[in-house]
Specification:
The chain has a single domain, classed as Ferritin (Up-down Bundle). The radius of gyration is 17 Å and the shape is elongated. It has helices spanning 4-33, 37-63, 83-110, 114-144, 148-158. The protein is mainly alpha-helical. It binds hydroxy diiron-OXO moiety. Hydroxy diiron-OXO moiety (OFO) binds next to helix 1, helix 2, helix 3 and helix 4.
């Protein structure tokens, strides 16, 4: 049986991951609206990955005999100043998620909950990858500046991203 404080913290993290999914789905809609279908695809894949992150915590809580609580999800923004603005906000959001994961790791250590500590290692690696992906796209958008041709080329590249479900969710 999982510790109650740990359970509450994981339930809050399910909500954080669901909000991440909402945020990226909203960004996907924004990119479609401004005609950048490749950027929209990238964000749509990100939305699905965030749902997987939420479900990984959800399944884990059930496996540990915990109670899943689905808290209300707040409304994300629906407009950004530019693709660069959207990706800068994505990076800021991911830095916040990294802090949340680190808090969970600290709590698992404090509670001597080794199973949760081990489970969280996957999220630590995932956060490194997510921040790096965002940083790379931000750097490219800064280089591109106002060049429509550069944006068009990046859009074509981001259209190639495909969704790969997490093994545990298949
Ligand atoms: Fe975007 O990361 Fe979830 O955890």
């Amino acid at each position: 049986m999982i510790d109650k404080e740990m359970e509450e913290a994981i339930n809050k993290q399910i909500n954080e991951e669901m909000y991440s999914a909402y945020l990226y789905l909203s960004m996907s809609a924004y990119f479609e609206k401004i005609g950048l279908k490749g950027f929209a695809n990238w964000m749509h894949v990100q939305y699905k990955e965030e749902m997987d992150h939420a479900m990984k915590f959800y399944r884990y809580l059930i496996e540990r005999g915990g109670t899943v609580r689905l808290y209300g999800i707040k409304e994300p923004p629906h407009e950004w100043k530019s693709p660069l603005d959207a990706f800068e906000q994505t990076l800021e959001h991911e830095k916040h998620i990294t802090k949340c994961i680190n808090y969970l790791v600290d709590l698992a250590e404090k509670k001597k909950d080794r199973a949760t500590f081990n489970m969280l290692q996957w999220y630590i690696d995932e956060q490194v990858e997510e921040e790096a992906n965002d940083e790379e796209i931000i750097a490219r958008l800064k280089l591109i500046g106002d060049s429509p041709q550069g944006i068009f080329m990046l859009d074509r590249e981001l259209a190639q991203r495909t969704y790969v479900p997490l093994a545990s969710e298949e």
